Amino acid sequence: MADGQSLPDLRRPNLLPEGGDLVRTVGDSALALAWRMLRPADRSPFVRADQPPLTRLRYRTDDGWGADLFHLPPIPGASAEPVVLAHGLGGTHRDFALEAGRGLAVALREAGFAVYLFEHRGDPCAVPPADAQPFSIDDLATRDLPAAIDRVVEHSGYPRVAWVGHGLGAQLYCLARAHGAEDRIAAASLLGCAVRFDSPASTLRTAGAVAALLPRGWVLPTRRMQQFLTPFVADGGDVASPGTEGSRARGRMRHASGDLHGGIVRQLARWVSEGALTDASGRLDVLAALRPGLAQVVIPSEDPACPPGASDPLVERLRAECVRLPPGWGHLDPLLADAAPEQVFAPVAAFLDRARRLCHHSG
């Protein structure tokens, strides 16, 4: 497919009615007004979100789903090896590019990479086939991920790619490799990637038990819920981002949150209840199936979704480089915190720079 040419049967759904920009503007204004009413003495910005310009590419899976890749080209004269960035649970591609002047996507662009932001069938603009069925995380790993890499390989001209995943985006890499579904990922940097859930809190176990009862086809409207709660997030961030400036944490909730699909939540519930990252059937232990590979694992110190003990076995299994962040880092802080450019983006870019030559080879 030629660059910029869209698939004829994939149409972006109309997510807002006619006049949708006005609806969005009014909603932003109402939330900002609520913020000012709640904190009249606080003159800090309500949100920070001015996403850099991205080119939308479409890809189609073997079972008919259409989804997006967002392309951020490298700086002029760069060698432009492709790196795919995959967001976590309840996020979108904007987690990596929330602001025009910063973010992991911008840092990797400036390091000379061609950046592709991965979205999948669980994201807002995905287009289902007429006979779409409920899906699980396995479908994201074994259908969406390979199809997206097909499109990146076609668009970039390189036979292999690098992968950077955060949370669920990192777990998709592990699942794909365990299934033997993808061998074109030359190197991977995995941020906040839990593979063991040895001692979940009782509340987490309860949440997992409830989630296991959800119908696979349900969609939980978490995007709207987070947007509604945005004015209540103070300048210390929230539990997922204690080290992030408040206006940036609010911007992420307002502009980068996504909904949760029942099939995804059910598989997550299985991981919690069984204590291990598995396939949807529970028969494949992903960690046990992994082989050593060129990888980097970034471990936040105070991540409720991925405490250090949940990632340590992955470091050992992959024989990976390990970046341990100091106290005070939550799950979203590696993407959003003021210190992220120095403590996360720079080590990730340096690791991918060392792996750069592998993108040139097909073997």
Structure in words:
The protein starts with 19 loop residues before the first helix and ends in an 8-residue tail after the last helix. By secondary structure, it is of the alpha/beta class. The protein contains 12 helices and 10 strands. It has one domain: 3-Layer(aba) Sandwich (Rossmann fold), CATH 3.40.50.1820. Residues 1-20 have low confidence and may be disordered.
Summarize the topology.
Elements: H1 20-38, E1 55-60, E2 66-72, E3 82-86, H2 104-110, E4 114-118, H3 137-156, E5 161-166, H4 168-179, E6 185-191, H5 202-211, E7 219-220, H6 222-229, H7 246-255, E8 260-261, H8 262-274, H9 286-289, E9 295-299, H10 308-318, E10 321-324, H11 333-336, H12 340-355
Parallel strand pairs: 3-4, 3-5, 5-6, 6-9, 9-10
Antiparallel strand pairs: 1-2, 2-4, 7-8
Helix pairs in contact: 3-4, 5-8, 6-7
What is the gist of this entry?
Residues 1-20 have low confidence and may be disordered. The chain is 37% helix and 13% strand. With 363 residues, it is of the alpha/beta class.
CATH topology: Rossmann fold
| Name of the CATH homologous superfamily | Alpha/Beta hydrolase fold, catalytic domain
**How big is the Rg?**
19 Å
Count of DSSP helices? 12
Measured distance between first and last alpha carbons? 24 Å
**Based on DSSP secondary structure assignment, what is the total number of beta strands?**
10
Unreliably modeled segments: 1-20
The secondary-structure class comes to alpha/beta
Features:
10 strands, Rossmann fold, alpha/beta, about 375 residues, disordered N terminus
